[in-house]
Amino acid sequence: MKHSLYRGGRDNEIIALFRQTFTDSESEKEGNHIGTLVKQFLEHTPNEGIRVFITTKDDQVVSGVIFSKLTFEDCNICIWLLSPAAVVTSMQGKGVGQGLIRFAHDYLKQEGVQQLVTYGDINFYSKVGYKPITEEIIPSPLKLSYPEGWLAQSLESEHIKAISGKVYCVEAINRPELW
């Protein structure tokens, strides 16, 4: 298996991976919803606002994770959002997703990213260093429907730096129903 920064040419395969993974784990409706979100990320997010990482095995994409840049009104700390992530159903529970996320963290740290946030399952994301936070520590771009799922990690130290002020996300994920 090989982890890498995605550089284009396999959009349909990546969209299908996310669609099928979320169909298998949630429902066909959720799979279509996430597939559409990933398509929006890939087709409409400027390169400076997105990083997509994939794992390939036998030249097939078996996992993917998308990071997008957050912009803060009153702060110049470089923070990116991890969302969404997917691993082909037959390979889940084998460390593939964790390995890809760690690879992505190393890459983003080299690019100068200081902190990461995600909105998801603490039981999974704690395995790769994320800790629960409140919006008083780092505000979310939109109102959270599940505040317990707001998680962060510093790539510089053990401590997460608190941020204040308005935060903006890329357009693909700037929809209240996603939060």
From TrEMBL:
Pfam families: Acetyltransf_7 (PF13508). InterPro entries: Acyl_CoA_acyltransferase, GNAT_dom. GO terms for molecular function: acyltransferase activity, transferring groups other than amino-acyl groups. Residues 1-147 form the N-acetyltransferase domain. CDD domains: NAT_SF. It comes from the Bacteria. Keywords: Transferase. This is Predicted N-acetyltransferase YhbS.
